[in-house]
Amino acid sequence: MKRRIALLTAIVMVFVMVLSACGGTAGGGGTLPVNVGSDPDTIDPALNSAVDGATLIIHAFEGLYTLDKNGVPVPAQAKEVKISDDGTVYTFTLRDGLKWSDGKALTANDFVYSWNRAIDPETAADYEYMFEVIDGYDEGKLNVTAPDDKTLVVTLKNRVPYFLELTAFPTFFPVRQDIVEKYGDAWATKADTYIGNGPYKITDWVPGSHITMTKNKNYWNYKELGMENIKFVLMDDPGAQLTAFKQGEILFTDDLPTDEIDAWRDKPEFNLHGQLGTYYVSFNTQKEYLNNPLVRKALTLAIDREFIVREIGKAGQVPAGAFVPIGLSDADPTKEFRDVGGDYYDPYDYEGNLEKARQALAEAGYPNGQGLPTFEYLYNSESTGHKLIGEALQDMWSKIGVKVNLQSQEWATFLNTRKNGDYDIARNGWLGDYNDPISFLDMWITGSGNNDAQWSNTEYDALISQIKTETDTARRFELMHKAEDIIFDEWMLCPIYYYVDIFLLSQKVQNFWSSPLGYKYFMYATVKE
Amino acid sequence: MGRYIAKRVIMAIFTIWLVATITFFLMFLVPGGPFLAEKSPSAATLEALNRKYGLDKPVIVQYKNYMLNLLKGEFGESIKQRGRTVGDIISTGFKVSAKVGGIAILVSVLIGVPLGCIAALNRGKWLDNLIMVIATFGIAVPSFVLSTVLMIIFSVWLNLLPTYGLSSWRHYIMPVIALSFYPTAYISRLMRTSMLDVLGQDYMRTAKAKGLSQFKTLFKHALRNAILPVVTYLGPLIAYTLTGSFIIEKIFTVPGLGNEFISSITGRDYTMIMGTTIFLATLIIIMNLLVDIAYKIIDPRIKFK
Known about the structure:
The complex is a heterodimer.
Chain A: H1 2-7, H2 9-18, E1 31-34, H3 51-60, E2 65-67, E3 73-75, E4 78-83, E5 89-94, H4 108-119, E6 144-148, E7 151-155, H5 163-166, H6 177-183, E8 200-206, E9 210-215, E10 229-233, H7 238-246, E11 252-253, H8 261-264, E12 270-283, H9 293-301, H10 305-313, E13 318-319, H11 337-341, H12 350-363, E14 375-380, H13 384-398, E15 404-409, H14 411-420, E16 425-431, H15 438-441, H16 458-469, H17 473-489, E17 493-505, E18 509-510, E19 513-514, E20 520-521, E21 526-527
Parallel strand pairs in A: 1-10, 14-15, 14-16
Antiparallel strand pairs in A: 2-3, 4-5, 5-7, 6-7, 8-9, 9-10, 11-17, 12-16, 12-17, 13-17, 18-21, 19-20
Helix pairs in contact in A: 9-12, 16-17
Chain B: H1 2-29, H2 43-52, H3 59-71, H4 86-121, H5 126-140, H6 143-157, H7 169-199, H8 202-209, H9 214-226, H10 228-242, H11 246-251, H12 258-266, H13 270-298
């Protein structure tokens, strides 16, 4: 008898653990299930730097302004703004009766606290530099004041044409001082303490599974909101996401396996939007041979970008002829920066470029690549796309006699190697933070943390600091074009394509929009049955 | 037996310390850090972050601090998932993984053991061949292939089962099948081999000669002896299965612990790497100890030394 019981020990051991009940909730009526990404690292508005995190945050919080369907900043928590003649003093008036999701009143002081919290080194926010346009940033105390509960006065260092847009950016959202101080970083990890001022509030949060948000009764525009609940399913696997989408278990998915793109391209659910970003190749400008602009020019021109986009990217990416991507406005907001600046080479004229590449190489003293060593092309191993592009580049560069070996590294190692400049040529990519070209130019100043090319050009550095203090908009854009000209006088980097944002949206969903930064707006969306 | 267990516990603590120490130093030898991204934070922010998590101190000082905290039972805060403690992440994830994994282990034992026995008793016949073909298939097919195929068949074609989450019993079916297929196959093969071995023993012939029923010979004499290799296998199997599978949890969006093992390493989330490693090591050691004790109970001839 004793033995028989003993025989089952192992099984019983397991049984005990299993018997903790299988609880569960079923989705109720009026829920919009979507997938914008997997488990976010953080959804603290100040700390987040991810696009999927930002989508969650814009539903639970709101800035002074927000972006409408056309990407134009419109009043949100602020009712109106007065801008001084020199464009440096913004006086915002908040809406009447603003409240947090727990019913407490929201005041202008909440913004003063939150913005200063974001730049506090103790907060260690990735995007704290976005506040550098505000006076007092360098001293660590922003020149932002609240003369009364409904007025916020912001003094900028110079005129910043995109400042209203910045106020729609998550880092500029208000957070609750009492809660942040009481719970520390943990405040943004639980539904109970995640108090916001946005259209929705979190009601159910299972890390790794889902975040369910429900309409916030205290939101000023509550009546206009869409579905009762939005369920953000935190899926990670693109294949599983697609299956769930096909089954109607989610009505939106932000990711699509590359090999499925062709099959979906012509379906009405398939959406393709421009995204402010460029896929490019970094040259280590400090390395011998690669420190020669003519060699870099030859490598840049010898690429068949149409082939890469068509055969590897497959998602409608746009072959790039410059670094600042399409989709950014110029001084005249009806014109695009890219159209005004034009391309630095024709990305569609592969044969012509190839000829120019050969000439440049000969001019550099390496006709047909003779005398050049074998370079190493570094990419990160997580995505097959990077590898395929590396192989395509290897093949294309071999046509001008330049030999390249491919080397892959795991993501974190890759980032470290690239940042430290321990490479010859490396894949790279950049997504803009706001609709202003400075977001793409600032990073190339000497010693910048994102200057993977290890490039240094005193004329360029001077130009960037001039842009940052320039008050005349037309002149400012002129200088930015000039800065980009220098990048291509030097052929400092090699653009491949401009990013696009692809996603699948069910035909049932109406009144949804996506911003050029890739944020998804579901708050006014409805589901047609 | 008490002394034996005490000795094993002391050994276990030493092993865990060794695992923790080796992991700690290896972890810092790997290039990269938790704060690097395509878009790097500014130098000032990096410095603040390093200071916040004590990463600005020499590795040996960090080691000392970590070990002191560990003695107090503190795993610290996750570096990547800001605001969440390692202990909290592990306990939340483990509850889910253990539930799915526990069911999967139960299923594999309850199916694998009888299948192995049936195969052994029908050695060389078509039933044996069929079971072994299925078992070989189960061992050869990787779980991600199986998961995807299951999803296509049951969710897409037949529209019977949901694709993500764990909100009802139906949600458990596919992850459990995917998780238990390999161990079921493995256990049935193991069971078959050792059963065949036991069936050929003299005492089996004696039992039969004495006129015992086939049922009694099988369950009283054969199974007891034949199951030992399976029990050995169960130790590590339980530890690994309860802590979740990276791939299966990813495919079925199961909010378990499996994902944390891999993502903590790729994200260089140092405190999470340490926490998950120590947790898994401890679990394996405990399971092995329990297996040894179960051994003794099943086969009294085994002596603890």
